[in-house]
Amino acid sequence: MSELAIYGGPRTLDPSRIQPWPPVDQRDEELVLNALHAEKQARGDHSIALEREFAEWNGNRYAIFTNSGTAALHMGLVGCGVGAGDHVLVTAYTWSSSATCILHHNAIPIFVDIDFATINMDIAKIEAAITPRTKAIVAVNLHGLALDFDQLMAVARKHNLKVIEDCCQAHGALFDGRKVGTFGDAAAFSFNQNKCMCCGEGGMFVTNDEEVYRNACSLWSFGETRRPEESRDYHAYALGWMYRNNEITAAFARAQLEKYPHHFANLLANAAVLNRRLPSTPGLILPTEPDGHTHNWYNYNLRIDFAAIGWTGSQVRFRDAVNRALNAEGIPTSVWQRFILPEMTVFQAKNAYGGGFPWSIPGADEGVDYDPANYPVARRHCASYIALVMALRAPNGPEIAESIAEGIAKVFGQLDRIDPDRILK
User: Residue 376: is the preceding peptide bond cis (ω within 30°)?
Assistant: First the structure.
């Protein structure tokens, strides 16, 4: 095996060979230009058509185009009746919005540790986390892998809890042949550029429940009870935000949605290359895809098995050095989330709005403990993972995936030569 590039050896992959995401073609330009020259720019035919097309594609009765996945999550909580002082369960390891969306409506996040194999919420630990104030679960399908919804929904229904699916990274992911976003009471998708389906910025709220839909619509548009394309009285009936999006972004999203079946198949094919090439690589824990699940590979996570390699020093520094070595080989890996959510300042301080609010709501803080030691599995994952995000996406094909696998195998095959003090100086 040749010398590591980080130490002056040959690079495995020329990074210029990796094409940027998303690929933009004539169809994108056609729809965006149509929206640009349309009479309505704020809310018109493209936004309405996108909602119809996304609902049909994903299998939902209702869809609302939003300005972000975070907005869609907030809409889900409001749609399901979550209010001030209520408790909402959420995984201890995810993007911050999965929990801060709970604060948006003055409710209290209650964290649940993860299952190490799937990196998703450990369903076996949900019941122990339920409090008398618990109203709902934000069920995050993290990195593109669906939760086991047979188990999760059984627990939720047993305790009369609403379920808001966070599908912001999971477009097209399946559980038992059924798409995410169709199991819970509501669901949220993100269309940020780093997502597998994107339009720069944006999101989609979906549900099959008319009451949930109407409550979410009111929050989405100023607290009104009528949508912008309807006859409005411009009267606020409840707390409302401005979560709508625009026509140009909707047009771009429509074009990307049309192409998503191809992009999804491309992701699966490229991930299959790594799954074929990398098993038994020393010190490497590969991502899992349990029976009955179809991963969309938004993130392909590489995790270091510190026990297997006998490393007893700082795990974070060693992980960072390995990531730097992969980058030197031309592999565009990164470290995505460096903190578990309970470690973040807003939760440690229990102060989102000043005066300790919403934890200062009488009775809301009872039994709420954000000690990071309560989430050992999430902390173990957070110190050990390296993320491969966009390089497996279209237009990159299996030949790029083969080179990426070669670079990963080269670095992990020489973990005994990784010196954090030398690499991170």
Answer: no
State the alpha helices, DSSP H only, in 164-246: 210-220
Mean pLDDT for the chain? 97
The domain of 396 spans: 5-20+259-337+380-423
Please answer whether residues 112 and 370 qualify as being in contact, where contact means their C-beta atoms are separated by less than 8 angstroms.
no
In tens, the pLDDT along 160-171 reads 999 999 999 999
Residue 1 has pLDDT above 80, yes or no: no
Contacts of 11 (CB under 8 A, 6+ apart): 5, 328, 329, 330
Residue 316 lies in a domain: yes
Whole-model pTM above 0.70? yes
Residue with tokens 């690929």: 23
Structure tokens at 69: 């996945």
3-state secondary structure 81-120: CCCCCCEEEEECCCCCHHHHHHHHCCCEEEEECECCCCCC
> Following DSSP, what letter does each residue of 1-20 receive, concatenated?
-PPPGGGT---SS-GGGSPP
Span 24-29, average pLDDT: 98
CATH (domain of 283): 3.90.1150.10
Q: Please check whether residue 303 is in contact with residue 382, taking contact to mean a CB–CB distance below 8 angstroms.
A: no
The values of phi and psi at residue 108, to 5°, are: -115, 120
